[in-house]
From TrEMBL:
Gene Ontology molecular function: any one: 3-oxoacyl-[acyl-carrier-protein] synthase activity
Keywords attached to this entry: Transferase
Keyword Transmembrane: no
Protein name as catalogued: 3-oxoacyl-[acyl-carrier-protein] synthase 2
One GO biological process term: fatty acid biosynthetic process
Phylogenetic placement of the source organism: Bacteria, Pseudomonadati, Pseudomonadota, Alphaproteobacteria, Hyphomicrobiales
Family affiliation: Belongs to the thiolase-like superfamily. Beta-ketoacyl-ACP synthases family.
Gene3D superfamilies listed in its UniProt record: 3.40.47.10
Cellular component annotations (GO), alphabetically ordered: cytosol
Ketosynthase family 3 (KS3) domain location: 17-429
SUPFAM superfamilies, per the entry: Thiolase-like
Amino acid sequence: MTNQPLSDTRVRDAKGRPLVAVTGLGIVTSLGQGQADNWAALTSGRSGIHAIRRFPTEGLRTRIAGTVDFLDTDPLVAPALSQRFAEAAADEAIAQSGIGRPGDFPGALFIAVPPVEIEWPQRQALAEASGQTGPITYADLQRAAASRRFDPWHDLFIFGTVADHIADRFGTKGSPISLSTACSSGATAIQLGVEAIRRGEVTAALCIGTDGSVNPESLIRFSLLSALSTQNDPPEAASKPFSKNRDGFVMGEGAGALVLEDAEAARARGATILGYVLGCGEKGDGFHRTRSSPDGAPGIAAIRAALEDADTPPDAIDTVNAHGTSTPENDKMEAMSCAAVFGDRIRTLPVSSNKSMIGHTLTAAGAVEAVISLLTIAHGRIPPTINYAVPDPAIPLDIVAEARDVPVRRVLSNSFGFGGQNTCLVLADEPA
């Protein structure tokens, strides 16, 4: 990173609220651990999507994912994986920020975690422990649980436990906030941190999005929704956002972490400011549990809300870090939403999707992509959307097919989730 402390001395935005500065970043994806490894891979167009080795995939329509296989984690279940990824990302972000003392973070924790439930291997073990060979009732499972053999699972599988462990390890203040707003969760965690700082409740926030949900049950559920790509060979070519031959998303894993601070407090302690979260926009609709509203209205509203919150006109955005899942419907809806906001400029406004290389990291996506957006600003280089070989004539966007070196001061980062949960962020090098 080449950032130096910024010379701008403003501490409040145009609306009179405390400016929210970013002083630390952390990232883990299938491309590697840390900013350096991820940035090198992203800008060289290298994919982290590969054949799944964690569990057997024979008979499955989709056999690929962007799994994180290089961090020791036991057991290999979503809560444990999500916690491990969050720890690694937070370690990096807090170290870079230089805030507080080890294990004594002087602010709140906002963490997006995947919905937690007992997975198939654990369900089978519990059923076998019931001693029943025929149909198993809830009472049978209660008797098995009463044996106390499964007490360690209680801590592992209770929703919110990941947040508790992260709070204990890093010494965050107040009650840790766990949230899950589908694929916009990581961005929502950042939004909550921004709002807490603006209200004056805290001067610092640790915001994390994490997800380790690549398991047989999740894979099958998404497959039954016809949401996943079935182009298994070669794996790295499967995720192709905005291409005419896209056929679904590829599951990914990882975590993104940001240390946010009141800009005045950050400057007072001599912190290096990496950028600012200028605006957050969140809009939802009840159109469908999984499908996007075909008129794009919620996406349009979320983008406009983020720009208005940032006091930033559309013309000031230099690039869009797209949600870009590679599903036929979502990519079309996002293109429509961007066109409605940016008008004819959308044909020349660079748009890129990191999911082409890391897959869809689900709950973590908004935070992971916010980190990548801030790295884009720092380095003045837009990572490519790989596999963009067959443009879709119905999506007239300027898709960055190869890494592009251009000055970048403001990025719009989109996160659109199942259930119509949409969150957009405006990230910048300096205050508006």
